[in-house]
Amino acid sequence: MKGQKAFAEKRGERSDTGGSASTGAILGYAKIVKKVKRVTKVTGGSKISVESAGFSKEGNYASIKVNDKDVLARNEAKKGLNMVSLDFVTHKVNFKKSYDTNEDSKASNALVEDFEKLPAYSIVIVAVKDEASKTFDKKAR
């Protein structure tokens, strides 16, 4: 394309079994529009506290606190994974949701979809209440 620089990279790889090397090419186009350097100053920081307990003997609860304030109280946490996302600079909650990855087979997909929608550099905190592994799939891990 006009105004873009082409580049190519060739890689040779050798087989572990002593076979012949294979060659591949990586092709792409790129155009530098503007370089920007961003510096974000974070002052102070926050104290984050997470409590998580299983069903049988541990107490069956989950909670998340930021600076000693409940952002996910024990009484609002649900069975499975409870996720809270904080803004990188202000540490204010920008997302909070529970996923019953123990009973609901669609919960793992919902978790992945929501996670991918979070803003860049979000602080993500997860607490488990009861059990969360029965339908928790590889992609969600």
Structural features:
disordered N terminus, 8% helix, 141 residues, mainly beta, two-stranded antiparallel ribbon
Description:
There is one protein chain. With 141 residues, this protein is mostly beta strands. It has a domain at 48-130. 8% of the residues lie in helices and 40% in strands. It has one helix spanning 107-117, and strands spanning 5-13, 22-30, 48-54, 61-66, 69-72, 80-86, 93-99, 123-130. It has a six-stranded mixed beta sheet with strand order 5-4-3-8-6-7, covered by helices on one side. A two-stranded antiparallel ribbon has the order 1-2. Strand 3 (48-54) and strand 4 (61-66) form a beta hairpin.
Short description, anyone?
With 141 residues, the chain is mostly beta strands.
Strands, helices and their partners?
Elements: E1 5-13, E2 22-30, E3 48-54, E4 61-66, E5 69-72, E6 80-86, E7 93-99, H1 107-117, E8 123-130
Parallel strand pairs: 3-8
Antiparallel strand pairs: 1-2, 3-4, 4-5, 6-7, 6-8
Major sheet:
6 strands, mixed
CA distance, first residue to last residue? 40 Å
Mean pLDDT: 76
| Rg, Cα atoms, Å | 23 Å
| Helix content estimate | under 10%
Topology as a string of helices (H) and strands (E): EEEEEEEHE
